[in-house]
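To assess whether the prediction recovers the assembly geometry, we first specified each molecular entity separately, as shown.
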Amino acid sequence: MKLNNNENDKIKQAFDGYEVPEDYFDVLEENILNKTVNKRNFISDKIFTSALLAISVIILSIIIYINKVNTTKVSEHAYNNYHLSILSNDSNLYVIDEVNKILYLNIDSNETAIINVINKLNIPEKEKNSLKLDYRLLKYNLIANNQTDIIDTVKTNNDSINKNVESDTPLYMPREICSEKPILLSPSIPNKEQYKFKWSNGETSNKIYISESGTYSLTITPINSETSKSLYATTKVKILPPPNGLSSKNISGCVGSEISLSVDVDTTKYQVEWMNVNKTSKSINVSKAGTYIAKIIGCETYLDTFIVSFSHCDVIIPNAITPNGDGINDIFEIKNIENYPNTQLYIYANDGKLIYQSKNYKNDWDASTVQAGTYIYKIIFPDKISQSGTLLIIK
Amino acid sequence: MTDPSDNFIISLFSDSETKTEGFKLLLKKYKEKVYWHVRRLVVSHDDANDVVQNTFIKIWENLDSFHGDSKLYTWIYRIATNESINFINKKKSALFISLDELNENFLDNLKADSNFKGDEIERQLIKAINLLPPKQRLVFYLRYFSNMPYKDIADVLHTSENTLKSSYHQAMKKIKKFFSSTY
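The predicted structure of the complete assembly is given in tokenized form:
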């Protein structure tokens, strides 16, 4: 059972009575984004902030000496139901779990051995990775500190080279930091107050506020003992705010030509990766319609989206015609339509009613059957590319 | 402008870095379709606005549970349809009125809605369609306005294709009858 044309028109007309306020769909989109994607960002911002806080607590936390074992707690990790601490004495690192079971990790073990131990831990994959990174960082710092000790003592006191084994003061500072906001760099060292701090930028406080990228190094010297060695550590800091002006952009061009898509960021600071295109340049040329996404990688990863469409630029469509028989603009004449046989044309009235259609338009519609007014045309080329717009008929 | 394909959108969901972008594209592509589907069911613009927002929030919250065992678009329509039905049921129970009264209410809605521009006969036609039993009405809307194949409607409404075909037939019969008695 089917409805006839007249009945179809009636139903369409009735439902056309449903209207929406102007610009409603844009407002709707924004409202929904605020309640979903952007809301999530807000929460993850919070998580990010609390993570930062947690990290600074870890860095700031005074290193606790564990009685008799002579080890130092250098970092703590809490994962869901799993609590992990990294302990250190001068040459070894230990990882202990919440029941104080010690997973022994020797500083001289090779990378594979360490990774094997970490892989055995009953924690999520992501956490394992951060733990590995953390471990490596601590290990490198330990090695670096030990080496610096020797160099420093060579400078100050030749005899102390052999006494170097006495060194038991670990100084921990991350090797590299990437942050979107300024940071407070606060190295961890037991008994902070017993040392004199000297930073490469001349500051002498035990923590510094960093708002510019650069390499920051620190030398600490014990205040009381003149024979003790200085310790040295260095950190590469990158302060990189989120990139500006990223959004979804609609871009159109002519069939047969190439469009250049370009991300508006400083590529000396941000890394660019075009997804599905496998290019890392600032701009790419495309000749196919579709959605192109560039990953912008700073401290975090951001996306820039380009929605590309193509149209036939040799085709010229009039926006008004005057069917009065004077031979000028009497017909809806689409220039160069003959280059595209089997092009479909649809003309709609203001209320959405279809008033003319052709499966193979040949510049022969003269609007004789319709009244003056504004109409909407839709042209579908044989390659499925479509173009639409308004047509004013003046009588 | 060509909309990105559903498969492309789905491929973005699998990576947490691109999930947000995928949802934005989904919203761009489906916001109007979903709105009109919901509007036909709940009639007033303000109600449709609420239901559509809830629908997309649900979609966002449940993205991870979409595993591609149904098509993306039937999944979206299923959520939108369920949200609309829930909304209507809630309204029904809140008002404590009979079904007939509810339909009168729909018509009043239409009269009161500044976002409806139609004459009395057009109102009557919409009323006649809204008087169809819920399943017939749903099939009619999905098939007639959203051009959905029976197979996909079955996916949206969790019913067999044969039941749907007969519901659509019944709906058509009633609408035909309305036309022959009114015009």
